[in-house]
Design brief:
Length: 492
């Protein structure tokens, strides 16, 4: 089976599940009031005839669930069939299957069906909309051209979770050691020692589970798995000694376990950094493409808002509805911005960009709120244009950061040999953030003077500006501490 055929087949299956769920949502929204009003007779008993609309909606939901179940089974079968001939597509399918199961899409569809059966239409509607978001993400993953990047990003997420798990396990084992050492100076209390033995067994099981999880990374994780295996064995030895009421030898084993866990934590961090370096340029390019998409979509929203402005001022019903519909597009822009922030935070290729995008997202949320209330005045259009300009400023800084550095072309620091273009881009984004906070502070001050804003809204805006100013201060300090003296001096 050819690659294009596989992608088309899977894409169609997701679309069918997506469409079926969307149909049931629309039907639920249209029938909600009718079903609620007519679901019971005057005696309080439900009549068979009145439930028909709800049953039709439930049928569509069950059909969507059946499509989803078929999709999961198909992904599993196909991945086995093409594992040797097309390993990349097999990996794509397994990643999609794992995502679907981790997010419990099938189970949630079943829950939505039960809610419909109980006539909990509002709850079912909310659940269905959340399922649609998950299906959209799954479709995007299965049809993405760069599955290699997706797989590495998924690995990176797992490594981060693994490191956090090791960190928690390390703290638990240190507590175990402290409690075991306390028992050395006391009269042996079997009950206390048994409790410590039980906790030690839990820690051992956690170490073994984590070791199995990290084995999928192959040779790259051999050292980590060896350390976790050693920690597990030491924990097992500590369990045995605690069971024999020997806290002193148990504490020796626990100390060895802590050493092994500390080494595993350090090695996971190194593997994380290695993976981040591998994906940095690809993720940077993806975020740049997403920012460009945000600019394009925001411009389209502004163009439509501008065309509707006069009609909205006249309170024309169709124009007011059209503006409210723009909120759906604005929400998609917000989601895209959130995705970019998540990628920045995951790969850590920039300190400033995720916070800067967070500030722009705040403005998008204000615009979205205005669109929901059919606002299409000059101030709304100005806010939309400002978002475009802010995103363009961040994109320009990223383009500069992407410029390679070398001795001939410039941009290379004499001290750390790093790319000074990246540092300059970070500083530019910081400068933009400070200008943005300053501008928003001035605008708020004008609104207060002109009494165009309520006291509650003033407090909310001040709180947001305070948070942003603190973030700028913190990031500036971190950027300074991570920058070498030669870079700070400005010499190439």
């Amino acid at each position: 089976m050819q690659k294009r055929q596989i992608q088309t087949l899977i894409g169609l299956a997701v679309v069918v599940a997506f469409t079926s769920t969307l149909f049931s949502i629309n039907a639920a929204e249209k029938s909600a009031d009718v079903a609620k009003a007519s679901s019971k007779t005057s005696t309080g008993k439900t009549t068979t005839g009145k439930v028909a609309p709800q049953q039709r909606i439930q049928f569509e939901q069950d059909k969507a669930r059946a499509h989803m179940q078929e999709l999961e089974e198909r992904m599993f079968r196909l991945s086995n069939l093409i594992r040797e001939s097309q390993p990349e597509d097999a990996a794509r399918l397994l990643l999609g299957l794992r995502k679907a199961r981790e997010q419990l899409i099938l189970d949630r569809m079943g829950e939505a069906s039960k809610m419909l059966d109980s006539l909990k239409l509002d709850q079912a509607n909310k659940e269905q909309k959340e399922i649609l978001v998950l299906l959209e993400e799954l479709k995007k993953l299965l049809l993405t051209a760069d599955i290699g990047l997706e797989l590495k990003l998924e690995q990176l997420r797992k490594l981060i979770n693994s490191r956090e798990t090791v960190s928690k396990l390390l703290k638990k084992e240190e507590l175990q050691l402290s409690n075991t050492l306390d028992q050395k100076d006391k009269k042996q209390n079997k009950k206390d020692l048994q409790a410590l033995e039980t906790s030690e067994k839990r820690n051992q099981k956690s170490a073994e589970t984590l070791e199995q999880l990290l084995r999928e990374y192959g040779a790259a994780s051999n050292g980590i798995c060896k350390s976790l295996s050693g920690a597990g064995k030491c924990m097992g030895g500590a369990c045995k000694k605690l069971g024999e009421s020997q806290p002193k030898p148990a504490s020796t084993e626990q100390k060895k376990a802590i050493e092994n866990l500390s080494k595993a934590q350090l090695d996971i961090k190194k593997l994380e950094e290695q993976l981040r370096k591998e994906v940095e340029s690809l993720v940077r390019q993806r975020v740049m493409d997403q920012i460009q998409d945000m600019i394009t979509q925001q411009r389209q929203v502004r163009d439509v808002t501008t065309k509707l402005q006069a009609r909205v001022l006249q309170k024309q019903k169709q124009a007011l509805v059209a503006v409210r519909r723009l909120a759906a597009t604005e929400e998609k822009i917000i989601d895209l911005c959130s995705e970019s922030i998540e990628l920045c935070e995951l790969t850590q290729f920039s300190l400033v960009l995720p916070v800067a995008l967070g500030a722009v997202r705040e403005q998008m949320e204000f615009v979205n709120e205005g669109l929901i209330h059919s606002k299409a005045d000059a101030e709304m259009i100005k806010d939309q244009q400002q978002i475009e300009e802010d995103l363009q400023a961040l994109l320009d800084a990223m383009i500069e950061a992407s410029r390679p550095s070398n001795k001939q072309g410039g941009g290379q620091c004499k001290g750390c040999k790093g790319n000074r273009n990246k540092l300059l881009a970070e500083v530019k984004m910081l400068r933009w953030m400070q200008q943005s906070v300053h501008k928003r502070t001035e605008n708020l001050d004008k609104q207060v003077d002109q009494k165009k804003i309520s006291e509650t809204a003033v407090k909310e805006r001040i709180d947001l500006l305070t948070v942003r100013q603190k973030e700028i201060d913190i990031i500036t300090g971190r950027l300074h501490s991570l920058t070498c003296p030669h870079c700070l001096a400005g010499g190439e």
